[in-house]
Amino acid sequence: MSWQQFVDESLLGTSQVAKASIHGLDGTRYASSAGFVVLPSEAQAIITAITKDPSPMYQKGITLNRSKYVFVKVEPGRSLNCSQGKEGAVAIKTNKCLLIGGYTEGMQAGSCTAVLQKLADFFQANGY
């Protein structure tokens, strides 16, 4: 399965994720949903917040697809959550990549997180 298929089928195909992207740990974008262009620098900032120091995010927030989100929480070494009004996003780091999924008004943050977590677990079980 290609990176784009993971985005289209495993994430967007669940109807629990409205937008998604997959990045390497250097920030390089592997695949993304239409119109959701997370810049490598934005992905790298999230990876740094997850793996090293999230404190700058408390003041500056998080930028995804050139839009500002409010930093909500981090699970050090694993994941990060952010929101923008009634929308939000979840980022989960695996051994070799970063999964980012967004939800929109009417969707549940927990359902979006569960879908991303399932794919992240699959990647980790397969060395990714």
From TrEMBL:
InterPro entries: PFN, PFN_euk, PFN_sf. GO terms for cellular component: cell cortex; cytoskeleton. It is found in: Cytoplasm, Cytoskeleton. Keywords: Actin-binding, Cytoplasm, Cytoskeleton. The keyword Cytoplasm applies. GO terms for molecular function: actin monomer binding. Its main location: cytoplasm. It comes from the Eukaryota. PANTHER family: PROFILIN (PTHR11604). Occurs in many kinds of cells as a complex with monomeric actin in a 1:1 ratio. Belongs to the profilin family. This is Profilin. It comes from Exaiptasia diaphana (Tropical sea anemone).
